[in-house]
Amino acid sequence: DAGITQSPRHKVTETGTPVTLRCHQTENHRYMYWYRQDPGHGLRLIHYSYGVKDTDKGEVSDGYSVSRSKTEDFLLTLESATSSQTSVYFCAISPGQGVGEQYFGPGTRLTVT
Amino acid sequence: SQQGEEDPQALSIQEGENATMNCSYKTSINNLQWYRQNSGRGLVHLILIRSNEREKHSGRLRVTLDTSKKSSSLLITASRAADTASYFCAAISSGSARQLTFGSGTQLTVLP
Questions:
Q1: Does residue B99 belong to the interface with chain A, where contact is any CB pair within 8 Å?
Q2: Can you tell me the mean pLDDT for A67-96?
Q3: Integer Cα distance of B74 and B55 in angstroms
Q4: Which residues contact B59 (CB under 8 A, 6 or more apart)?
Q5: How far apart are CA B72 and CA A105, in angstroms?
Q6: What percent of chain A has pLDDT over 90?
Q7: Distance CA B30, CA A71 (A)
C-alpha cells in the first residue's frame, strides 16, 4: 500500500470522547489527505495538508481538526466524537504538486456508540 | 458536493464480457481519475486522464474523456472474477485547489 499505514485499524469509542487517528507515510510525499467513506456518499475530503504545518479544510471538516508536525505523520482528531462520525476513515498521499494520483492507506473503522 | 457521479450504481456481468462504467462531473477539471476498491480495502489508483486528452489505455482498461459533455467512461475488457470491486471516478477541478472529489461509485460483480 505505497508505504502508508494507519493506526488504529479499528476503534470503538463513546460519544463525547476525543479520538486521534494517525497516518504515517514513508514516501516523503508533500500532500496528505483525510477522507471519510460512508454508504451512498463515496469518499469525502475532511482535511488535507500540503506541507509541515500547512493544512486546509475539505468538504466535511466540521468536528475535525488535523495536525502535521512532521512530513511523515498526519493526525486527525475528533475533539468530541459523535455518532454521526461513525465511518471508515482513509488517509491518502500524493506526490508532486497534489494534482496527480493518490495512494490510500488501509483505512480505520471508527464506531462511536 | 460530489464532482463525479457514476452510472450504473451496480453492474453484474459474466466473466469474459466487457464492463463499461460512466461518470459525469460538474465543473471544469484539471484531470479525472479512476480508482478501484476491493471490499474492506483502501482505494487503488487505476488511471488518470488529463483534460486535454480524449482517450487513454492501460492494459485491459480504456478510459475516455469528453470535456464538452463533462463525462468519462471506463471500459474493462475481458473481465475476470478478480475485477469484482467498486469503481470510483474522481476529479481534480481546474484552479488552485488540490482536492480530489469522488463520485459514489459503481459496484461491479463479475460472475465466473
A1: yes
A2: 96
A3: 10
A4: none
A5: 26
A6: 88
A7: 26
What integer pLDDT is reported at residue B96 of this predicted model? 60
Residue A111 corresponds to which amino acid?
T
Q: How many CB pairs under 8 A join A and B?
A: 56
| Average pLDDT over every residue of A61-89 | 97
pLDDT, position B1:
44
> Residue B3: its pLDDT value, please?
60
Interface probe for A, chosen from B28, B45, B63 (most Cβ of A below 10 Å), is: B45
Taking an 8 Å cut-off on Cβ atoms, the answer to whether B42 and A33 are in contact is no
Contact B1, A44 (CB under 8 A): no
CB A91 within 8 A of CB A23: yes
Q: Collapse the DSSP code of B82 into the 3-class scheme (helix H, G, I; strand E, B; otherwise coil) and give the result.
A: helix
Which of B27, B93, B98, B106 should we substitute to test contact with A (largest number of A Cβ atoms within 10 Å)? B98
